[in-house]
Design goal:
5 helices; alpha/beta; 188 residues
């Protein structure tokens, strides 16, 4: 890995998990970068479902996928990630990724919230296949505050260790509340 940004780190781990034909969810599509990566990894036989509550996110993602020739590989849904279980069967998903916070370059008043984020994580855990993985990029401070980060960390700390492996990473020498990459594996 050549870079040290949270998205680079998460993408490296995601690349090691998603196989051709995989079923993936981008729980917070934003500008579409994770959706694009998942489409490339899942390939023509795979499926990607991406969620966001902002029409702007869907438009940005649709434009990026179209530009990259991947538009037919993803289903873009204007809905909150807390509703993802309405769109997939239990234990049918290989990988789910979240980026908590707000749309890059968007209105900072529109951001993920602790209650719906925890509901989204909980819904996602029920959708993961055994040996499936969830990636969480937790941004805090500034506009988004710390409540969401603390509530998510409290929630995932209580996940049963016989069912899940949870790895929390942190930038140890960065100031100003750097983002936190977290990975959850569902045991087989």
């Amino acid at each position: 890995m050549k870079h040290s940004q949270i998205t680079d780190w998460c993408h490296e781990i995601i690349r090691s998990q998603v196989m051709e034909g995989g079923n993936c969810i981008d729980a917070t599509m934003g500008k579409g970068n994770d959706t694009l990566l998942l489409c490339k990894l899942a390939g023509t036989e795979g499926h990607v479902t991406a969620f966001d509550i902002q029409e702007e996110a869907l438009e940005c993602t649709r434009a990026l996928l179209t530009e990259q020739g991947m538009c037919g590989r993803a289903e873009l849904i204007l809905d909150g990630h807390e509703h993802m279980a309405e769109y997939a069967e239990p234990e049918s998903v290989d990988l789910i990724c979240f980026n908590f916070g707000y749309l890059p370059g968007g209105d900072h008043r529109i951001a993920t919230r602790p209650d719906t984020s925890i509901q989204g994580i909980n819904a996602g855990l029920s959708l993961l296949k055994p040996a499936g993985m969830m990636s969480l990029c937790i941004y805090s401070g500034g506009d988004t505050g710390f409540e969401e980060k603390e509530r998510i960390l409290e929630y995932i700390k209580k996940l049963p260790s016989k069912e899940y492996t949870v790895i929390v990473n942190e930038y140890y020498n960065r100031k100003n509340n750097p983002p936190m990459p977290v990975f959850i594996w569902k045991k087989s």
